[in-house]
């Protein structure tokens, strides 16, 4: 304590009280059900009374925090007490989102979890992976599933691979455990997966791959955007860090770009300082984040907080609709194949059946019900031209590079999300040119099926 003045020490003591109050609130919410957490987060009556009584989390759009005194400023800027300081570093509205995300993703996980919100899903992926690539050494590599979002593919291949000399060891079939085992060596920095993946909704066994990564002293990072914590919580399955594009199902209204890193405390890694291992999300937020500047806009945080409240209900209904659409497409004579985790024909369906379950859905039987999300992909017979013709015939399903929406949206990944990675990259990621990716929205499934059926009939 002797290193600061008495005045600063008073703020440090006040900060300890503030932190204790937050910890108490978190502990209370950890005893609540998923929906209750999604609706309330850590915003309680006391917080409301300090905010004009507002029962909804306030949107703090201000850029900076005023301090009581120089002592207060010194304590806050030195991270000696909770404070938000400046909106690139932290923000009260973003804080409410981060606390909710940590509670939802950590739901049912037996350990501490923290979250940091970011300006987009891509910034979450960058901020979650970049800290492991310090002190470059010959042979430095990462092992990642090739079945991943196009932006992730480009970040790893171009930014890390071409520009920084990191060797990217792509796992072609993420369901093949041997591929993961064979690609990991002493110079591997992290193991990365996306499940279900975008656009192929490919699956992998998080539990098994976490076992392999941990045996090598490496962290497993999982992009769980498509599943959301309403269906799967990878931390329970052994993942160290979970990544989200909150832009998608979490903000199904389509009003906000955003992302998040949610990490358990005590991740498996030999890289970086102790603080990074102890609380990765907080480390990222306090240090690299401040310097790289990928903070989430508080307005966007508010949009996401608002949509998150109904996450479980939406994922339930949207998954059921998507199952019906998938079953329709599977039997259509103009469709070559359908990828949807809920279909028995899907490779890895048994992994999905084991791990994709609607949270808190267990009735009298004690068994949670399976729900498989609202993304599917299908190959149209007749190659790329036929896929484009069907795509161009949609009258209700939007043609857009988007997913997670409450409105049905379709894209052709080969000419959109996965265009930049080229033929070779698409071959690696197994993205064929006649693939249509479909996000099934909240419309009545009969109307979605009608639009698909009419478009397919034009072939
Ligand atoms: C969209 C998406 C991303 C990128 O998120 P942005 O919010 O668009 O930056 C990352 N991963 C997956 C699985 C996605 O679908």
Set out the fold topology.
Elements: H1 6-29, H2 34-40, H3 45-49, H4 70-77, H5 92-105, E1 113-118, H6 121-129, E2 141-145, H7 150-162, E3 167-171, H8 177-183, E4 188-194, H9 206-215, E5 220-223, E6 241-245, E7 259-264, H10 274-278, H11 280-286, H12 288-292, H13 298-308, H14 311-330, E8 335-339, H15 349-355, E9 375-380, H16 383-393, E10 398-399, E11 409-411, H17 422-428, E12 435-439, H18 445-457
Parallel strand pairs: 2-3, 2-4, 4-5, 5-6, 10-11
Antiparallel strand pairs: 1-7, 6-7, 8-9, 9-12, 11-12
Bound molecules: pyridoxal-5'-phosphate.
Pyridoxal-5'-phosphate binds next to helix 6.
Largest sheet: 7 strands, mixed
Amino-to-carboxy terminus distance: 76 Å
Name the poorly predicted regions: none
What's the overall average pLDDT, rounded? Answer: 96
Query: What's the CATH C level of the largest domain?
Result: Alpha Beta
Number of strands: 12
Q: Helicity level, as a percent range?
A: 25-40%
Percent of sequence in beta strands = 5-15%
Which ligands, by name, code or SMILES, are bound? pyridoxal-5'-phosphate
CATH topology of the largest domain: Aspartate Aminotransferase, domain 2
Structural class by SSE content? alpha/beta
Order of helices and strands: HHHHHEHEHEHEHEEEHHHHHEHEHEEHEH
Oligomeric state as shown: single chain
**Structural domains: how many:** 2
Instruction: Give me the number of helical elements.
Output: 18
Task: Tell me which CATH architecture of the largest domain applies here.
Answer: 3-Layer(aba) Sandwich
The CATH homologous superfamily of the largest domain: Type I PLP-dependent aspartate aminotransferase-like (Major domain)
Rg, alpha carbons: 23 Å
Strand order of the largest sheet: 1-7-6-5-4-2-3
Shape: globular
